[in-house]
Design a protein that fits this description.
The structure is a homodimer of 172-residue chains. Chain A has 172 residues and is an alpha+beta fold. Chain A has helices at 2-10, 15-82, 86-106; strands spanning 109-111, 123-131, 138-143, 146-148, 151-154, 156-164.
């Protein structure tokens, strides 16, 4: 201890001067860390934005690319139509339909179920009709509905069964 | 000056003590600024990742949704085919083709030009044939090519003119 004190006296430093020096150094380091972090943040922000744009472009591009064979086969079907080759035209349309359906299925598209009761979450009732079917059940689909994953992309447009028609004197 | 010195003596402070105090405060502020920035950065990172996932999902969803009417009309065309209504089938296929073409055009799809000379950047030569056309020009398209913006999604598969056939004794 005595030695230390002596040394400090020799170097003409005080504990206060030491602390000052340490704090100044610490401050400088903090400032440069802060500046580096700010620069990193700014760079990250810019990169993230560029990446987002690229991702969206690529997501579209992938589906567009997968649609090219569908477009090709449609054009072949059109040629068959021009030459009045009905069987070829029919086969072509079936092929195109199957391709498009598979492509959309792969993207996660699924038809909305329409067997059973009307469900306002996935169905849109365009009409209610008296029917022998259970009241509130779907009796006709006017336009198919689709969901993509959890989301309903388009509700199914349906006709719903109204109160049962009682063909007078129906025994209970 | 004398007054200042006197005051400092009264408060038993020295210029060094003042600087120490100031540096300590500055240090504390720098540390809390740094911690806040780190937290902001981390939050931004997490949010950007979530947003990217949502963006990709939405980019696919948008195109899938636009394809639903195409699928509807294809199904109507199939029904016409089942009932052997050839005109209706033809009209349906034409409609579907136009719809799909417009949708893809809106996404930025454009056919690769095939008039003129063979261009290895956008064409794929499947065959070279002797021809009266200029050597190296595209004389037949076997499969249409497409570009999306600046990128070639699929090169056009073409037949290229070989050296000119000289029908012996052709005057210069």
């Amino acid at each position: 201890m005595t030695e230390e004190l002596e040394n400090q006296e020799v170097e003409e430093t005080s504990p206060e001067a030491d602390e000052l020096e340490a704090l100044r150094n610490e401050n400088e380091e903090l400032i440069s860390t802060l500046q580096r972090l700010q620069a990193d943040f700014e760079n990250y922000r810019k990169r993230a934005q560029r990446e987002q744009e690229a991702l969206v472009a690529r997501a579209g591009e992938r589906i567009v690319k997968e649609l090219l064979p569908v477009l090709d086969d449609l054009e072949r079907a059109l040629e068959a139509a021009e030459h009045h080759e009905e069987t070829k035209l029919e086969d072509g349309v079936k092929l195109v339909h199957r391709q498009l359906e598979q492509l959309l299925e792969k993207e996660g598209l699924a038809p909305v179920e329409t067997d059973g009761m009307f469900d306002p979450h996935v169905h849109e009732a365009l009409l209610t009709q008296p029917s022998q079917a259970e009241e509130g059940s779907v009796i006709e689909v006017l336009q198919k509905g689709y969901r993509l994953g959890d989301r309903v992309l388009r509700p199914a447009r349906v006709v719903v069964a109204g109160p049962k028609e009682e063909p007078g004197g129906d025994p209970l």
